Amino acid sequence: MSGAESFGSLFKIPELKRRILFTLGVLIVYRIGAHIPTPGIDGAALSELFEQTKGTIMGMFDMFSGGALSRATIFALGIMPYISASIILQLMTVVSPHLAQLKKEGEQGQKKITQYTRYGTIVISLVQGTGMSMALEAMKSPGGAAIVPEPGWSFRLMAILTLTAGTAFIMWLGEQITERGIGNGISLIIFAGIVAGAPGAIFMSMDLMGTGELSILVVLFLTVLMAGVVWAIVFTEGGQRRIPIQYAKRMVGRKMYGGQSTHLPLKVNTSGVIPPIFASSIIMLPATAAQFFRDVSWMQQFSALMTPGTLVYSLFFVSAIFFFCYFYTSIMFKPTEVADNMKKSGGFIPGIRPGPKTADYIDQILSRLTFYGAIYLSFVCILPDYLIKYFNIPFYFGGTSLLIVVGVSLDTMQQIESHLVQRNYDGFLKKGRIRGRRG
User: Fold this and answer.
1) E-assigned strands of 213-357?
2) What are the domain boundaries of the chain?
3) CA within 20 to 30 Å of 239's CA: 145, 273, 317, 367, which one?
4) In degrees rounded to 5, what are phi and psi of residue 172?
5) Per CATH, is 3-438 categorized as 1.10.3370.10?
6) How far apart are the C-alpha atoms of 259 and 424, rounded to whole Å?
């Protein structure tokens, strides 16, 4: 089947067509909201101020919000409060017996945890909205114009309510995509915000090429490098270590069962794009505060240390990625449970004793894969920081954002693939299916 026919088959399945159109409609609503300004803010003065944040942590924060932060729109806080709340809840499942029990209760327990995450999102949004409204009152553009012409509690309350409601609405949109659309809603919203800034970055690069500030050789080098990074992401995300599993033969009545061979696939990057997103969310909290309160001397020093491209920032960011790689993998994959289920069904790894020995063997392999996956994620995520520092690139696009774009695209494509294959259609891609690459 040709590519055009494969694309046309997307709309031959009523349910898949409905889900795709619903997802596109929700993303359009999100992008419209990202242009609705928060009352009481001088947008021109704020844009002038944010022109100085290109390539900084604030520029990265603005990229994740799809430009909503630099425009101070109703979606200025973006989806980061929800991600922060998710991080807190997942960390608490390790230390809280109540949350750990809820996690074991299946769907009902997950609903309860989701509800707690929503409450946490509102609380964090209120706190961040309060800090942002007070910071905006104290900020001025390079020309001396006040960002908030009429400061006071009337503006603060309006801004807090507006920003909190905006984040709550984004959270609801993400949940609607996950439930009624295609793909993971929260990831797709971040994806939409990042992609929305791509055309502007391309046109900016073309303008700089025209003025001679950016040489053609640098642009070609960056294009080749970006293509190489995309290839590395696709290659690594499909990488697997397949552990062979043999099932023993057993008699049930007069019939013989078992005896077949299969494998246990372990991905190189089990946690996907979650570690960079979580690490970015964590690192943005203190860095954002430092950007807003520059009048305090120690804040100035901290802000300088946490500038992308510095050694301290890179070490902190890489450490956070490693932590969340291992933490999220430990939550998503339980070697002990896998080994117990394998033993109950009569399966074993050749040369490894069933039970605890099998769990230790799987855990050892998974730990090594996670280490390599964390190195890969760290390299991809900090690469653009140094490109900005040494090549003077005027935008923050690449690394974490590129990883999210490619990862979310692959995940969404896999979900579309499953819908097509279930209904006996050829896959969307040329080979028919998205397969994991054997490591």
Assistant:
1) 239-247, 250-252, 255-257, 261-267, 347-348
2) 3-438
3) 317
4) -65, -40
5) yes
6) 30
